[in-house]
Design brief:
The protein is of the alpha/beta class and 724 residues long. Helix content is 37%, strand content 21%.
């Protein structure tokens, strides 16, 4: 299949569409004369052989920035606790996927150097060193900073010996009535082999001794995940669940002596590999692979620092990890449970309450009945949404729900990558199909760690009569598209939403994303062709207003960068600004280096990984890289070019990564009017303002926190309030 294409206030966001959406179709980026880098220019970039930072180590530095948020005493205390939990979850996934991938390459004898010049073994060794330092730093933050600070606010995370008699009595009763019936002790002896340890489970390693024979046995007790990680004992005092279990082990091993007890945790390879070309039924193949995921090889063993050598040797031997993969940490292990502490109803220790509002142009047509999205789009043409500041429920969700209920709507076409467990979007699509509308849903069942949920949704949608397609063989469908086909007095009309985030009402309150709701017929026609490509055998190869991966997102971005070089050389306005989750694609990075060598100002706003090294004399002196982390997760992707005085801004689903540009169906849409572009540029202006708090990337790959007077998310919340 071919997928090709070549300000503040109640903004005029908006208003009737201007003619710029048809000024110059973007099959190519026209510059007279066009800029084509010659061999000398390319060699000037290639001469810097160490110009790429390592992807994996850059990711660890991203998680270090998350940890620095937990250390930031200017943040509300419970939010700092949440950032510690997020740090743990992030690192878990990194080991499950990225470290697991490195181990696979090493085991297969693949000794190809990364773009950074490092061999897989060198990268893995560096990861073990840096990750170990970060985990120990997290433990220190928790023990030396967070616990005393919480105690000062009346929230106490206690160990068993710190509980008073009444609290211990309560825990004893709680254990007897609730916990004990759930536990399953697994001993190791000639009749009982070493048990399988599931990934990310918290476990007690127990040595028990027979009082008469003196013979000792190892046993494992899994800490159940069905209970709160920190057990409340009253008056905002909590004790780790494993402490309660450890104190009552004699009930699990009656007649035996408890010699020692320590906690441990295993991380396993949980990435999936499905050879789609060989799979007759992708759904069945993926379900089988999901079963195998539970038994992936280990990639990390976390153990309590007090664990004795004999017990440790047994675990290392039976779990089959190397000494470098063992991390000795002070307990309690697995601080994901701090989410429960962060959720305590203490407004004085949390971010101020924030409620998204209906976008002003949608609110204009709001009365006692729900928002009429179609009327708003007929009136204004385009509406740019910025979540979570603009309500998802009264915009995107309402768009789909209204389409499902509207008798004039003939068809709905939708992509789904991740959504929530009780998704109103899914419910609306089912309602639409059951009412006789044509409903096409492109479900990406290979969305990592959401595979099982997406299989469940796919089957539910099929049963309701939706046409469900699993995308394109060999590619993940990651683009965020929704299209409604409606019969109106003037004829058939398409309404389209193109976004940077998933159709997930829960994450839409936490993730920063952009979305374009539009009645622009040219954009609608492009999206219609793309849906036909995804669901059928259409071979349309022409999009006027979209860039579509894997064919032309990379080439389109590189062409736009080259265009800025030509404008700069000709003395016209030139500037490049990109906002992404990650920037690691060498082709795009080298194009940015070319632009910098030519003198073009370049600004990158990168939340996570960045393989580009800014500020290197002769290579990247005009490039600035910043990172903003905080209350909301920066998730939108923006590609902005000054265009010699005719600026273009693209938004969409594609990060500057190989997987997005080569192995996924991604979409970027060119924003169709000046007022909308100005709103996006205004947000970028604020992010790059020297007075805004952010991390700045140095040439050596280190990030330095710059504390400004303005916090981006707070400032955008205030802007949103003024727009009401």
């Amino acid at each position: 299949m071919t997928l090709t294409s070549p300000r503040d206030g109640v903004a005029p966001d908006e208003g009737p569409a201007d003619s710029t959406s048809r000024e110059h179709p973007h099959d190519t980026f026209d510059v007279d004369p066009p800029y084509v880098p010659d061999a000398e220019a390319l060699a000037a970039v290639a001469a810097f052989t160490d110009r790429f930072g390592d992807r994996e180590l850059s990711w660890l530095r991203f998680n270090q920035r998350v940890l620095e948020l937990a250390e930031d005493t200017s943040l509300p205390l419970l939010e700092r606790a949440r950032f510690l939990a997020i740090f743990t979850s992030n690192l878990d996934e990194f080991f499950m996927v990225r470290v697991a991938g490195l181990k696979r390459r090493i085991a297969a004898g693949v000794a190809v150097r990364a773009a950074s010049g490092m061999l897989p073994r060198e990268v893995l060794a560096a990861i073990h060193t840096e990750a170990g330092e970060l985990m120990r730093r997290q433990v220190r933050v928790f023990a030396d900073d967070l616990i005393p600070a919480l105690r000062a606010e009346g929230i106490e995370l206690c160990r068993w010996e710190e509980l008073d008699r009444e609290e211990q009595k309560y825990c004893k009763k709680f254990f007897k009535e609730r916990i004990f019936p759930v536990l399953t002790p697994l001993a190791v002896d000639p009749a009982h082999p070493f048990p399988y340890i599931s990934g990310l489970s918290l476990n007690l390693a127990v040595i028990v001794r027979h009082p008469k024979t003196g013979k000792e046995h190892f046993a494992r007790v899994k800490v159940p995940q069905t209970f709160n990680r920190f057990v409340p004992v009253g008056n905002q005092r909590f004790v780790p669940l494993e402490d309660v279990i450890a104190e009552h082990l004699k009930r699990l091993f009656p007649g035996m002596e408890i010699v020692s007890t320590h906690t441990f945790r295993v991380t396993r390879n949980e990435d999936l590999e499905v050879e789609e070309d060989d799979a007759e039924n992708l759904l069945m193949a993926l379900e089988k692979e999901l079963l195998r995921r539970r038994f992936g090889p280990p990639v990390r063993l976390e153990v309590e620092a007090t664990m004795d050598e004999r017990m440790l040797e047994l675990l290392v031997s039976e779990i089959d990890v190397s000494p470098a993969e063992v991390f000795h940490l002070a307990g309690p292990l697995d601080l994901r449970g701090l989410h429960g502490i962060a959720d305590l109803p203490r407004d004085d220790l949390s971010y101020p309450t924030f409620v998204p509002s209906t976008h002003p142009l949608l609110a204009e047509v709001e009365s006692s009945s729900p928002v009429d999205v179609f009327e708003a789009l007929r009136r204004h043409g385009n509406v740019l949404l910025h979540h979570p500041y603009d309500s998802f429920a009264t915009s995107v969700q309402r768009f789909i729900e209204q389409a499902a209920a509207d008798p004039h709507v003939l068809a709905i076409k939708q992509t789904l990558y991740r959504t929530s467990g009780d998704s109103p979007v899914i419910d609306a699509l089912i309602d639409a199909a059951e009412s006789g509308k044509q409903v096409l849903v492109i479900v990406e069942i290979k969305a990592r760690f959401d595979e099982q949920a997406n299989i469940r949704w796919a089957r539910k949608l099929e049963q309701a009569g939706c046409h469900v397609v699993y995308g394109v063989v060999g590619l993940k469908t990651h683009c965020k598209l929704s299209m409604v086909v409606r019969e109106e007095p003037e004829g058939i009309r398409r309404y389209t939403h193109i976004g940077t985030g998933n159709y997930n009402p829960k994450t839409a309150r936490l993730y920063e994303d952009l979305g374009l709701l539009t009645a622009d017929e040219a954009i609608g026609e492009d999206v219609a062709h793309l849906f036909n490509n995804l669901s059928g055998i259409s071979r349309n190869a022409h999009y006027d207003h979209l860039l579509v991966a894997p064919e032309t997102v990379r080439s389109g971005i590189v062409s736009a960068i080259h265009e800025e070089i030509a404008h700069h050389v000709a003395g016209r306005p030139a500037r490049i600004r990109l906002k992404a989750n990650s920037v690691v694609d060498e082709g795009v990075i080298d194009a940015l280096y070319l632009a910098s060598q030519a003198g073009v100002p370049v600004q990158l706003l990168v939340r996570g990984i960045c393989g580009l090294r800014p500020g290197i004399p002769g290579l990247s002196e005009t490039i600035e890289v910043r990172s903003v982390l905080g209350r909301f997760l920066e998730h939108s992707r923006i590609y902005s070019f000054a265009g010699g005085g005719e600026p273009t801004v693209w938004i969409g689903s594609a990060d500057v990564m190989h997987r997005n540009l080569d192995r996924r169906v991604e979409v970027l849409v060119r924003l169709p009017q000046e007022s909308i572009r100005e709103r996006v540029e205004s947000m970028l202006d604020l992010a790059f303002d020297p007075g805004t708090t952010a991390w700045d990337l140095g040439p050596d790959g280190t990030w330095t926190l710059h504390q400004g007077e303005v916090h981006l998310h707070d400032a955008l919340i205030e802007r949103q309030r003024r727009r009401r």
